[in-house]
Amino acid sequence: MAQAPPPGPGRITSLHLAARTGEPTFPVTQARAVTGRGLTGDRNYWAGEGPRPRRRGTGRASGVCDVTLIEAEALDALAREHGITLTPAECRRNLVCRDIRLNPLVGQEFQIGAVILRGLKLSEPCTRLEQLVRPGLIRGLLHRGGLRAEVVRGGTIRAGDRILPLPHAAQPPLPPAPADPPVDRSGADLTGTGLPRSPRTPPAR
What we know:
- By secondary structure, the protein is of the alpha+beta class.
- It is about 10% helix and about 25% strand.
- The strands form two sheets. Strands 1-6-5-9-8-7-11 form a seven-stranded mixed β-barrel. The chain has a three-stranded antiparallel beta sheet with strand order 4-3-10, with no helix packed on it.
- β1 and β2 form a beta hairpin.
- The protein starts with 9 loop residues before the first strand and ends in a 40-residue tail after the last strand.
């Protein structure tokens, strides 16, 4: 049976940054995404040495990521079903998008303009956000509070850019196990030893 095509494309409707944790977000027309670090000028941008730590503190909001996204349709539903109006700036996500489902992108790569992101986990609403807005926010955004993602390939993200999930075939393969190094069809060396390798000969029956 043929595999169903990935959903999409969607589009970016607005971008938002915050200079420091806890400060209000402000809209921008574009933002520079840096591989492994995040969006330049945002409070979650990692400027330290070495790889970004992936945990910070405890609790629901402990995950650390490069970029956060949310569906505009989720904000529409929050107002319609719970009577809570949350503007794109108040939701504190970096990228607000439309016409694409984000939850299926956990563990998947997707492209925004020339930038490639990988979904890490759902961005569930936190108690702090509920305190800033009004009671009922967590229930209204549960499992539709957005997506946390990392930057796989950097570049510039602009309002209006399309969001296109990448097919599995376009994603880089997992690294091979140490005991079974990769071999191409020509027998060229892919192990770094400088010696050519030949395809395995199947055992005699």
